[in-house]
Amino acid sequence: MKKFILPLLLILAVGMLAAVESEPSAIVGYVKYDMLVGNNLVAIPMECPWQWASELGDSYGGIVDLISYWDATNQYFVTATNLGDFWDGDFEIHTGDVLMLNTSSQTVMYSIGNLPATNANYNLVPGNNTVMIPLNLSSFAWSSEVGYDMTAGGVDLVSYWDNINQYFVTATNLGDFWDGDFPVSIAMPLMVNAYSPFSWPSAPPTKSHLTPRASK
Hints:
Layout: E1 2-5, H1 17-22, E2 28-35, E3 38-43, H2 53-58, E4 64-71, E5 76-82, E6 87-88, E7 98-103, E8 107-114, E9 122-124, E10 127-132, H3 143-149, E11 157-162, E12 167-173, E13 178-179, E14 189-194, E15 198-200
Antiparallel strand pairs: 1-2, 2-8, 3-7, 4-5, 4-7, 5-6, 9-15, 10-14, 11-12, 11-14, 12-13
C-alpha cells in the first residue's frame, strides 16, 4: 500500500530515466507507505536520512515499537525493540533496505529526498529474501515478471505483505503460469524464495547491508 511521487518525473518519458540516473541529486521526491496497526513491510527507496533503525522509529513519536529486517542467511526476522529510553538490538539501515515496522496506530511512512546515486540491488541466498523493486525498473507490472526476471536463481515464490490481514500473500510459479499473480510497482517491498545464490538486478551492493548495533 504505497504511492510513488516524483513531481518532475510525472511528465517525463521513460527515455529520461538515463538523465535521472546521471544526475540523481537534481531530482527530489518521495515514496509513501500507508501503515496500519500491526506489522507493515516498507522499504527505503530514496536516499536514507537515518543511520539507525532507532532514528527511524523515534521519528514516529512512540507509535513504532518494533523494527525488523529479514536475515536471509539465518531465515528469520531480526528485531530492534523500543524500550522507552533506548532501542534493544538497534541496527544500521541504508537506502534500499526492506523493513518490517510494527505500529500501535495507523500512520504513514515517507521515504523522502534525492534519488539514490546507485539503484538498489540485492544478494539473494537460497531460501526467502526481501527485496524492493528498484526505482529504475518501472517496466514490471506483475509479480510473475519479477519472478521470471530472477529465473537465473530459480525463484518460485514472490510474496507481498498484506498489512490488513497481517500475512504474506504469495504468487507461485507452477511452470506454465504463476498462481496468485498480483500487480507490482517500483519501490514495492517483496519476499522472494530462491533456489540458489545470485545478485538482482545487477551488481552486488558496495557496502554492507544491515549491521546490528550493540545494546546499551
